[in-house]
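Review session, final week

We close the course with one last complete record, chosen because it touches almost every idea we covered. It is Peptide deformylase, a protein from Glycomyces terrestris with 184 residues. Go through it on your own first, then we will talk.
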Amino acid sequence: MSADDTAADAGPNPGDTGTARPIVRYGDPVLHRPCRPVESFDAALADLVEDMFASMYAANGVGLAANQIGVDARVFVLDCEDAEGVRTVAAVVNPVLVLPPPPRELMVGEEGCLSVPGPFTDTPRSSTAVVEGFDPAGNPVRIEGTGTLARCLQHESDHLDGTVYVDRLPARTRKRMLAEAGLR
């Protein structure tokens, strides 16, 4: 079944009614501080989520945090697959990341970021991750991830805590990655 057939059966896709916004680049202060919790589950939040999906898809991303479009709010969206190829499309408000206790099984894989355009580098992450939070209507959600989905849950949660993935890299690697992206 093609994506068009699925979309016809499922109704509008996330982001179809949103407006793509510019992606904030590494170095912008909004990316380097913890985001504020969302307090109102209202039409403004629903509009923000639609804009986030539209922005993520326009930039060919698999995940996007609100601060990546300059909004100081604990919200992220994602559209990616787990280790078995099962696709998850979701928006999570006020997420809490839960990782297995140490020692964790790590996976090392290529990671990139829309806020550090261009380069990818091997980055270790927990092979499993869980995020608990709310959907844009205020209903509780829980996403359990493996593979790329686990990586995405950790990456986007980091954004909301003010950490960009290159901040987790050794200083020399971070400097090279930022130079390749034309930043700093």
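Two points worth writing down before the exam:
The helical segments are 3-10, 43-58, 147-160, 171-180.
The chain has one domain: 29-181.
Good luck, everyone.
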